[in-house]
Amino acid sequence: MRRRLQEVQPVSSRLPRHVRVAIVGAGFAGLGMAIRLKQDGIDDFVVLERADDVGGVWRDNVYPGCACDVQSLLYSFSFAPNPGWSRAYSPAWEIQAYLRDCVRRFQLEPFLRFGHAVLSATWDLPARRWVLETSHGILTADVLVAAVGALSEPAIPHLPGLERFRGKVMHSARWDPGYALAGRNVGVVGTGASAVQIVPAIQPEVGRLVLFQRTPAWVLPRGDKPISRPRQALYRRVPGARWLLREVLRILRDSLSVGFQHPWILRLAQRWALRHMLRVVKDPSLRARLTPRYTMGCKRILVSDDYLPALTRPNVEVVTQPIREVREDAVVTDDGAVHPVDTLIFGTGFQATDMPMAHHIRGRDGRTLAQVWAGSPRAFLGLTVSGFPNLFLLQGPNTGLGHTSVLLMMEAQLEHVLGALRYLDARGAAAVEPEKDVQDAFIQELDARLSRTVWNQGGCRSWYMDATGRNAALWPGTTSAFRHRVEHFEPSEYVTLPRPSSQRPARS
């Protein structure tokens, strides 16, 4: 049962005129940055959040069955452990509760500004600072940390006739908890990570469920189970036991990255998934519709104990014909079949490679980040961009993963930002941005490595690819390799901008 969560109450709603660091977004990345700033002795910052609570995707995604597909021990900050996880894979409400607890534990309330949407951010070259236009006024900052993530803006396909549908329409990230599904004729569009959780959660209560599947997914059993109270007590009393298990999980999951770099390994692993499907789905016709024709790992591998069983139930139909149009009370597919529905649920993901905020961030030459990227997001270390001084993109381009927790990547980036701030302090400088040649070399090496991975060679079309066909989402390696490359700030890879003469200390 979903528990009532105690909401975070910010201490102040007043927007400061200037801060050293402005953080946009109060999800894992933004809160992690805030915590590490405080731990490093920096308290001149603000966290701007357009919503009314912290949590990011874990605040927005309240659909039935929502949970993490990485073990709880890995899906938490190393510097803010939680010994009280209730399950091996945390439900969404528990992750949200954890983030709220982090706010209270590290006393972040004075730094939070809810309901503060950032409308634009422009680099003021003469003043060497960022000018942020927010829904509550103007703010300037020496450093801008964009912690908006890649999974913040829902993607809904353009289906002919959708605007005339008279029933209820919901995206997984915009769920209406007050809408009763009992007895409804529900159409679910998409078979990604959210749909694989929604379908088994709502199947027992709906009257009929039609799953409109464009591409089947490779599904592996998750093996979720409760964490016993004795084990929770052990984690509390012996922190080393919790740390040791976390390290074992980290190493084991990190080793899975080898398969993504060498597709032949995952082709062998497909046999496991096929055996799992054979045990669960007895109908040969349904099994054929659910069997992917691409190499495992090309699209996100899904983990679930109850998705495939749900698809075998009498009130569920899997439709593989493309959608031709949506009518007032039905969905029509290309074969002319009419599927009556009164509810449409989109599990169609997010605008992952087209960060909406990129259209509102302007760098040194006045161009927006989106204009510089021209449909293909690129960043040095997935974090900084030439021409955009003191801009740090947490969970930026090519920092996604297919095998383990993105928080491991995020923490390496947090340390890099702190290293940059220490460097600026030590030099008395105003800003840093990556050397263009260094950035280009990094991207070139990254693309070469990605070209050999299953994501590029697996024979599928996925959201990992941007508008130009480039893989702009994923990191082709281990989190250990990323941490080794990223967490240390190397000044030789950056251009250092001096302070304006008006800000330089006077000589004695």
UniProtKB/TrEMBL annotation:
PANTHER family assigned to the protein according to its UniProt record, in alphabetical order: FAD_NAD(P)-BINDING DOMAIN-CONTAINING PROTEIN-RELATED, L-ORNITHINE N(5)-MONOOXYGENASE-RELATED
Q: Which Pfam families does the UniProt record give?
A: FMO-like (PF00743)
Keywords noted in UniProt: FAD, Flavoprotein, Oxidoreductase
Q: What is this protein called?
A: NAD(P)/FAD-dependent oxidoreductase
Q: Supply one GO molecular-function term.
A: NADP binding
